[in-house]
Amino acid sequence: MIRSVVISALLAALAAVAGCASTPHDAGWITLLDGSKPSTMDNWIQNTEPNWRVEDGTVMADSRAGKDSTFLVSKNSYSNVEIRAEVWVTPDTNSGVFFRCSDPNKISAKNCYEMNIWDTYKVQYYATGSIALFAKVDPVPKAGYKWSTFDITADGAHLLVLMDGKQTVETNDSTYASGPIALQYGGGIVKWRKVQVRPIIH
What is the CATH number of domain 30-199? Predict the structure, then answer.
């Protein structure tokens, strides 16, 4: 009996230590969008047609009235930051995470960095996992029909993208310094489960 109590106590202590060890990695993240918490939509502006909706624990879009992409644009701007996004798409989905956007009223790859999510994009080296116009991806990872987690680091001129923990691109560029984040819908189906940011403090 005493032995089992001691073993249980040791296991509990080890679990507590493991929990504490994971805390620094998870600390500092700010949730901007959570499909299970519709109130987080208040952190964003729909700067075009209101085709985004909360459904089944996600924030999704699957249609648009016009021909142009629609966006959710964060109300806050970010400079040096980590971005983590959990997303589900179809292979034909045209989506992406735009960051450091210089004009929040006219989002495009010509005034933001765009981490592209588009498996079937005709220019494959700027398909899923790339930073369009700035960092080519090779090989091209596929995001269609599954949940993926993208981690973007923008730290000064250093730009890094991970997809499910694996690096897709890394580059240095200082074209854009600061601005809001924008989530794109340009076709197919896109579902965002969670989007978080963690400011980088030097």
Answer: 2.60.120.560
